[in-house]
């Protein structure tokens, strides 16, 4: 390998799987390969739904061993969840899963102290029942001396050093998106001690060196630095959107769909709150202005209920089902919990007076049409609320493998869709590490490198947009 090419391990943990990818970056090259992939399977115990964090950490160690010698390691994961440590730094039980029901009704209690409009104006975060703020209000924190968000917890185990990376901290509903610092006023009013959190880190900051025990476990030669990246996986994925200029929207697809814009400043208006848009922090002073949509979780749960049929057969069958026959609100909290997803989708269609999908192909088509419709509404609403028009929609993440969803999104939005890269979060993770070594200049430079080196597929809008307007009106009850 050329001395000018460096290797980076990107640990990328999603809600259903984890992976360790190796990015090899040179002045004019970017290659990504998979070292190790492992299942992220939550466990339901008597006290509720928990993450199997030790299994995940084992997967990380296995991945680093498979990756071989690297110049740096970075970790990104899903947001909002955390581990609690005692005074000796020991973990106080498995982290609670954000789909655990313990936060039901908590937001309404918080709003009696800090009304929802005031909370939004201060933090810019959308309402979601599992926001870290609500989890902390619901949690028993006795004995806890430190709180580490999931990527920071794994970084601590690798290095022995504690920190709180900013892009992920911005999902806690305890950060002011204007100052990019903690909102001490909000924390005090809801009774959260911000001393629980380790000091804030920025993407690109050093996060320590792999401990000797980790080097021995993985066979790596030290010193190997760990670099803070955009540790919220969506922050890393948006950093890897291969866009030029500013007139683009993005949709990060996977278990969730995160659809929105990259802005220079948050949008904190009452209209934005009513539309449930969030203002999360991205790289280089940017704001990720987006809406959470239930995403391919709907299909994942159905596939699980059907006994894991072959998607290579299911998706072509769904493509033959008449379009927009039935649609559901892909952002509805009724679909948040696991279990009985085909039945819940059927019930939603029945309740709205639409034809009830019966076969797996019909249910799948309902899901994909509904996701495309939700993508359309999010992109339209974001442009209107931010006063930020776009000419193209970039789809990144696992959903780029679903050509039917990408085409339906182009049709629904009435805009070209550029799909790729699939491993956007891992690539964004790698690019931040490469910037530390001067191999990438800035956010725009990384995106330009992605455009030249990664496979992308373009989908042009087809069909009559009036059908999508009618479906949206039907869903709204108009």
Q: How would you describe the overall organization of this protein?
A:
The chain is of the alpha+beta class and 478 residues long. Helix content is 38%, strand content 21%. It is built from 18 helices and 21 strands. The protein has helices spanning 53-67, 106-113, 116-123, 132-138, 150-159, 166-169, 184-190, 212-218, 233-239, 270-274, 297-305, 311-319, 341-351, 360-386, 403-413, 424-436, 443-453, 465-476; strands at 6-13, 17-26, 29-39, 43-45, 48-50, 72-77, 82-85, 146-149, 164-165, 175-176, 181-182, 200-201, 206-209, 225-227, 248-253, 257-263, 278-281, 287-293, 392-397, 417-419, 457-459. The protein has a seven-stranded mixed β-sheet, sandwiched between helices. Strands 3-2-1-6 form a four-stranded mixed β-sheet. Strands 4-5 form a two-stranded antiparallel ribbon. Strand 19, helix 15 and strand 20 (417-419) form a beta-alpha-beta unit. Helix 12 crosses helix 14. The mean pLDDT is 96.
């Amino acid at each position: 390998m050329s001395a000018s090419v460096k290797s980076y391990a990107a640990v990328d943990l999603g809600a259903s799987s984890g992976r360790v990818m190796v990015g090899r970056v040179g002045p004019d090259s970017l290659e990504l390969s998979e070292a190790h992939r492992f299942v992220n399977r939550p466990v339901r115990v008597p006290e509720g739904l928990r993450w199997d964090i030790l299994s995940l950490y084992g997967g990380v160690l296995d991945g680093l061993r498979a990756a071989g010698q690297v110049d740096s390691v970075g970790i990104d994961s899903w947001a909002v969840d955390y581990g609690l440590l005692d005074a000796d730094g020991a973990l106080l039980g498995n982290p609670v899963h954000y789909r655990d029901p313990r936060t039901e009704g908590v937001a309404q209690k918080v709003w009696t102290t800090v009304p929802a409009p005031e909370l939004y104006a201060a933090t810019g975060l959308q309402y979601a029942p599992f926001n870290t703020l609500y989890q902390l209000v619901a949690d028993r924190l006795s004995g806890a001396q430190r709180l580490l968000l999931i990527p920071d917890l794994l970084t601590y185990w690798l290095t022995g050093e504690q920190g709180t990376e900013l892009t992920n901290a911005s999902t806690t509903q305890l950060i002011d998106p204007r100052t990019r610092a903690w909102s001490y006023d909000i924390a005090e009013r809801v009774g959260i001690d911000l001393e629980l959190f380790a000091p804030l880190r920025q993407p690109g900051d050093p996060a320590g060196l792999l401990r000797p025990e980790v080097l021995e476990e993985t066979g790596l030669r030290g010193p190997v630095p760990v670099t803070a990246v955009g540790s919220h996986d969506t922050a890393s994925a948006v950093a890897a959107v291969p866009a030029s200029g500013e007139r683009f929207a993005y949709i990060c697809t996977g278990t969730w769909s995160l659809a929105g814009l990259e802005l220079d400043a948050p949008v904190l208006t009452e209209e934005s709150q009513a539309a449930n848009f969030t203002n999360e922090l991205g790289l280089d002073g940017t704001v990720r202005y987006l809406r959470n949509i239930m995403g391919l979780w709907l299909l994942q749960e159905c596939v699980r209920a059907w006994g894991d049929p072959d998607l290579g057969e299911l998706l072509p069958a769904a493509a033959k089902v008449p379009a927009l026959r039935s649609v559901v609100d892909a952002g509805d909290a009724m679909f948040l919990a696991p279990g009985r997803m085909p039945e819940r989708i059927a019930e939603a269609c029945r309740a709205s007076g639409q034809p009830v999908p019966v076969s797996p192909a019909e249910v799948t088509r309902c899901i994909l049409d509904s996701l495309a419709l939700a993508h359309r509404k999010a992109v339209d609403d974001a442009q209107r609320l931010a006063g930020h028009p776009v000419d193209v929609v970039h789809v990144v993440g696992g959903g780029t493998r679903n050509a039917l969803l990408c085409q339906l999104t182009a049709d629904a939005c009435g805009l070209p869709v550029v799909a790729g890269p699939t491993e956007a979060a891992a690539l964004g993770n790698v690019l931040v590490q490469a910037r530390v070594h001067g191999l990438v200049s800035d956010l725009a430079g990384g995106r330009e490198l992605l455009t030249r080196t990664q496979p992308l597929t373009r989908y042009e809008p087809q069909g009559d947009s009036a059908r999508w307007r009618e479906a949206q009106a039907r869903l709204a009850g108009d």
